[in-house]
Amino acid sequence: MTGSKPAADRSPEAPVWPLIHAERAALVADLADTSDVQWATPSLCSGLTVREVLAHLTAAASLNPVRWMAGVIRCRFDFDKQVAMRLAEQLGANPAETLERFRRVVPSRTKPPLPAVAMLGETIVHAEDIRRPLGIHRDYPIETVTRVAEYYQGSDLVVLAKGRIGDLRLVADDGPFETGSGALVSGSTVALTMAMTGREVYVDDLEGDGVELLRERCGTAR
Quick one: which of 26, 49, 178, 202 is 20 to 30 A from 33 by CA? Predict the structure, then answer.
């Protein structure tokens, strides 16, 4: 339900790839002047630096279903091992090479066996995993982040999200996103999305009777 707020074009038929490409390009621009010290900053993904998260995004944009399955088999269905292996492949010799490798996949439409909207979610969530620790703010197009929020509220694919917000009512204060019933959690669409995907630091940006319950449900982010 979105109440009386205007609805954006978030139908399944609406193009997703242009949104992914735009977000990748924005991240490249934001990281252009990152210092070597900043590249070593811990990200919001447990155990990974911001540089390693960027390499993970490059890997995701470089894996088609065949290569993805080959890696899964090679890693004996240990998905965490596969992620680490593919990240290492794309890290490069230094931060400049890491960024250049990501720049090259900005227009890519290659993806693992996931819906395109999941790739959009991965792009935005991991971009925030990088931006927040570096103190970088992005004003996301509300239509884009609303589409991601609506995807995560109904999915536990790749990352637990739907299961994290049970018995909670999430309401964005900057756009049309609204879902669930129960104790209220309100705030920006980005903060709600990041909290849904387990990034506890974003819970501090939220308000409502359900905030502490959501905080308890936030665990290690991936």
Answer: 202
CB 8 within 8 A of CB 143: yes
Q: What is the dihedral of CA 139, 99, 87, 127, to 10 degrees?
A: 0
Tens-place pLDDT, residues 87-144: 888 899 999 999 999 999 999 999 988 899 999 999 999 999 999 999 999 999 999 9
Q: How many domains does the chain have?
A: 2
Rounded to 5 degrees, φ, ψ at 127 are: -65, -40
CB 158 within 8 A of CB 197: no
- The pLDDT tens digits of the residues spanning 143-201 come to 999 999 999 999 987 788 999 999 999 999 999 999 999 999 999 999 999 999 999 99
Has residue 5 been placed in a domain?
Answer: no
Residues in the chain: 222
110 and 172: one domain?
A: no
Full residue range of the structural domain in which residue 69 is found = 17-134
DSSP per-residue codes, 12-39: TTS--HHHHHHHHHHHHHHTTT--HHHH
Do 117 and 176 lie in a common domain?
A: no
CA atoms of 222 and 170, how far apart (whole Å): 22
In a domain, residue 126? The reply is yes
